[in-house]
């Protein structure tokens, strides 16, 4: 396996692979990670570190994968709080009382694509297999958030909605927020048809020519990461505070689960972040 990146670090601990991002690693009040396929016990199309309970894998294997991953990446399994994603833009503020939801407790809300907290030792968990992970950390107010931005969530401005919650509920100033736009399917690989393209083309204030490309015959390429970056700038984040991972999930499908690369036969990746 060859992994090349200028701004994303691949780490191995006890045979478990996970990614980290320098702009977040330098913040001493948080701990973060993005999972890979490496180091779990699942089999077949889920091999091996599948962290999604909803793909058809043996639940006991997924639970064990979580425990293995937490041990290797430095998280307490008992502090996890999972989103319940459905490609919308609902943002949930969570506390210690929510620990276990979506992991060893049932989901209690049907539609949550972003999580926010200001409490230490509450580990946010969101899920991916080509969609765009958005990591947020405010070092001034000590607030963190994770958001899942598929194409629908991107067009719906889930990143902006997350920043609004951080601002309105926790007093964050958008200019203080550090953001990493994590591994996702890249501009190189994300081909869509006309109806999806038209959703992105409607974002005229963001200048769609910079994140779309017409291939002809009703086919287009979309840059999800750049679209999200432009939206976050509109939300008040500073360009210097936004980092974009150069890792494409489809190009690296041996390391990362990719829905497009596998034709939907795959496990799931997670983003994790907590305040120390």
Spans of at least 5 consecutive residues whose pLDDT stays below 50 are none
Mean pLDDT: 98
Shape: globular
Q: What structural class should be given to the helix and strand makeup?
A: alpha+beta
Count of domains: 1
Distance between the termini: 33 Å
Kindly estimate the percentage of residues that lie in beta strands according to DSSP. Answer: 25-35%
Total count of strands = 15
Under CATH at level 1, the class stands as: Alpha Beta
How many strands, which pairing sense, and closed or not: the largest β-sheet?
A: 6 strands, mixed
Give the H and E element order.
Answer: EEHEHEEEEEEHHEEHEEHEHE
Assembly form of the protein: single chain
- Report strand order across the widest sheet: 1-2-3-15-7-4
Which radius of gyration do the C-alpha atoms yield?
Answer: 17 Å
CATH fold-level name: CNF1/YfiH-like putative cysteine hydrolases
Number of helices: 7
Please, what is the CATH homologous superfamily? CNF1/YfiH-like putative cysteine hydrolases
Report the CATH architecture: 4-Layer Sandwich
Helix content: 10-25%
């Amino acid at each position: 396996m060859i992994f090349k990146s200028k701004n994303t670090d691949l780490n191995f601990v006890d045979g478990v692979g996970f990614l980290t991002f320098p702009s977040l690693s330098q913040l001493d009040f948080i701990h973060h990670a993005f999972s890979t396929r490496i180091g779990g016990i699942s089999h077949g199309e889920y091999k091996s570190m599948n962290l999604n309970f909803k793909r058809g894998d043996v639940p006991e294997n997924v639970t064990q994968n979580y425990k293995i991953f937490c041990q290797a990446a430095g998280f307490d399994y008992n502090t996890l709080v999972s989103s319940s994603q459905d490609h919308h833009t609902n943002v949930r503020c969570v506390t210690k009382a929510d620990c276990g939801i979506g992991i060893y407790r049932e989901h209690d809300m049907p539609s949550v694509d972003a999580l926010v907290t200001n409490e230490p030792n509450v580990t946010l968990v969101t899920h991916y297999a080509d969609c765009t992970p958005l990591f947020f950390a405010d070092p001034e107010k000590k607030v963190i958030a994770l958001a899942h931005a598929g194409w629908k969530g991107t067009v719906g401005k889930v990143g902006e909605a997350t920043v609004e919650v951080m601002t309105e509920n926790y007093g964050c100033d958008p200019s203080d927020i550090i953001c990493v736009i994590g591994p996702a399917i890249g501009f190189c690989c994300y081909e869509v048809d006309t109806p999806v393209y038209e959703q992105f083309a409607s974002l005229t204030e963001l200048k769609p020519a910079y994140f779309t490309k017409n291939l002809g015959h009703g086919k287009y390429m979309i840059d999800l990461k750049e679209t999200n970056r432009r939206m976050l700038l509109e939300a008040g984040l500073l360009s210097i505070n936004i980092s974009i991972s150069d890792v494409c999930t489809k190009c690296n499908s041996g390391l990362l689960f990719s829905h497009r690369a596998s034709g939907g036969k795959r496990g799931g990746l997670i983003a994790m972040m907590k305040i120390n």
